[in-house]
Write a structure and sequence with these properties.
alpha/beta; D-Maltodextrin-Binding Protein, domain 2; single chain; nine-stranded mixed sheet
Length: about 350
């Protein structure tokens, strides 16, 4: 009995020792957990939030913290080196890239649609011609029963309510996409406000992020704004059809975005390309890629390996989850090229 007790005691000590060792290893793992920080676009935030949580869950030693602050903020922070990666819907300019502390490359992740959302009491469906949409945001069309709007919507009873334009107040890739489109369809817009992540808006009130614009439109009768498709769907806000380059009325959809992307004949090596107002019978005209801005050679080798693996996971596995959140996955020819770029990262 005494021998058995001694033996049991030895096992107890051994078990306790293993528990202590396991606790030490666990705590050590936590202390050395690798934190990856990113910031930027609100346009892809819903899919990024899902991806980053899934990746972190599958890699317990990795924590990804992404701040949805707008594309302008994302570009500023990644070029300054205060975050490990940036996110933008408006490609960084040559000047911004030249000012970066490290050489950055654009990695396209998914495609999405920007939709004109509206809050017109009693109206659920409305169509927008390109010139009409531009003139609304120029402040030249100020009431909902304006003759030009009525001409495109003969079966809609439009009120005489004043139009309240809502735009982004922060540096925004969604604004870049929308103003890039308006610049292509309106000479007055192109020669006036122009395109950019931040512009001098001719009229309207500003909201921060896609969330802010969606919230303002939802609570303001007579309002019109622009957001990424999922923000309209999630907030149950009505959005209009837009006449595309082929002259057809189209409602934003994954297929319409995919058709717009298919219009690219030659993809630039740096992936900075615009697909707004693309040709195609069913192409949705306010479509765009969205990009992650990452160092080609990360100063921190460990972080570089994690970001490279994350990007590989996004392109090979994450893309399949995009349609459920109303984004279009990268076309295969684009994804194949992007993977090669990811492999070239150091």
């Amino acid at each position: 009995m005494e021998y058995k007790a001694q033996r049991a005691g030895v096992h107890t000590v051994k078990n306790a020792s293993w528990l202590v060792l396991a606790a030490i290893l666990f705590c050590t793992g936590l202390m050395h957990a690798q934190k990856i920080t990113g910031a930027g676009a609100t346009f892809p935030y819903p899919i990024y939030d899902k991806w980053f949580k899934e990746y972190s869950a599958a890699h317990p030693g990795v924590e990804i913290n992404y701040q949805s602050i707008g594309s302008g903020g994302g570009i500023r922070q990644v070029t300054a080196g205060t975050v490990d990666f940036g996110a933008t819907d408006g490609p960084a300019t040559d000047e911004q890239l030249a000012a970066s502390k490290t050489k950055l490359i654009h990695i396209p992740t998914v495609l999405g649609a920007v939709v004109p959302i509206f809050n017109i009491p009693g109206v659920q469906d409305i169509r927008f011609s390109p010139d009409v949409l531009a003139d609304i945001f120029l402040g030249k069309i100020s009431t909902w029963n304006d003759g030009r709007i009525a001409k495109d919507n003969p079966n809609v009873k439009l009120p005489g309510e004043r139009i309240v334009v809502v735009h982004r107040s922060d540096g925004s890739g969604t604004s870049y996409i929308f103003t890039d489109y308006l610049s292509k369809v309106s000479g007055e817009w192109s020669n006036g406000p122009g395109k950019g992540t931040s512009i001098n808006w001719p009229t309207g009130v500003g909201g921060k992020g896609n969330e802010g614009v969606a919230g303002l439109v939802r609570q303001t009768p007579g309002a019109i704004g622009y957001v990424e498709l999922i923000y309209a769907v999630q907030n149950k806000i009505t959005y209009g059809e837009v006449k595309n380059a082929a002259g057809n009325w189209v409602r934003a959809s994954i297929d319409g975005v995919t058709e717009a992307a298919a219009s690219i004949k030659t993809l630039p090596a740096d992936y900075r390309v615009s697909i707004t107002n693309a040709p195609g019978a069913n192409a949705y005209p306010i479509s765009s890629f969205t990009w992650l801005l990452v160092p080609l050679k990360n100063p921190d080798a460990t972080k570089g390996k994690i970001i490279k693996d994350l990007l590989n996971w996004i392109i090979t596995s994450g893309e399949s989850e995009a349609p459920a959140l109303f984004y279009a996955p990268l076309p295969k020819n684009v994804a194949d090229k992007v993977i090669k770029t990811v492999y070239s990262m150091q």
